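Exercise 7. Given the encoded structure of a 140-residue chain, write a plausible sequence.
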């Protein structure tokens, strides 16, 4: 497996070098809005410790990530009055991984509404900020 690259975008977000719409943070995890959301309320959960994906993350950090994923699934479903949630992790390029810092997608889902395609275009910053506020309010 290739080495962890500490210049990946999520490592830069954790170091404060790039902005993010934070919705939750604890000792081991950080959750924020995906800037290319496939649904309104699409959140990413990452460990604060360096790891490339599920293959090299410590079991303690993985447990912390999954606890935050569970918390985020409740929050996004409440915030967006969703019928369900999709939770995804992509591992290595062949598995669809693009950013090589462990991350889990949490997407609120509504019956009969398909995911938007991943176009590579960033969402409007004001929309992301408003959606982040909805998630934070649902957590309160």
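Solution.
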């Amino acid at each position: 497996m290739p080495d962890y690259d500490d210049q990946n975008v999520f490592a830069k977000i954790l170091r404060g070098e790039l902005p993010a719409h934070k919705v939750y943070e604890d000792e081991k995890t950080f959750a924020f809005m995906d800037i290319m959301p496939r649904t309104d309320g699409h959140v990413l959960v990452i460990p604060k410790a360096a790891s490339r994906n599920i293959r090299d993350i410590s079991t303690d950090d993985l447990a912390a990530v999954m606890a935050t994923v569970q918390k985020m699934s409740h929050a996004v479903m409440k915030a967006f009055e969703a019928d369900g949630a999709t939770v995804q992790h992509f591992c290595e390029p062949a598995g669809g991984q693009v950013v090589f810092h462990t991350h889990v997608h949490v997407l609120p889902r509504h019956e009969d509404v398909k995911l938007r395609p991943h176009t590579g275009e960033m969402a409007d910053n004001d929309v992301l900020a408003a959606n982040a506020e909805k998630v934070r309010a649902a957590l309160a």
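Remark. The mean pLDDT is 96. Students should compare their own answers with the one above.
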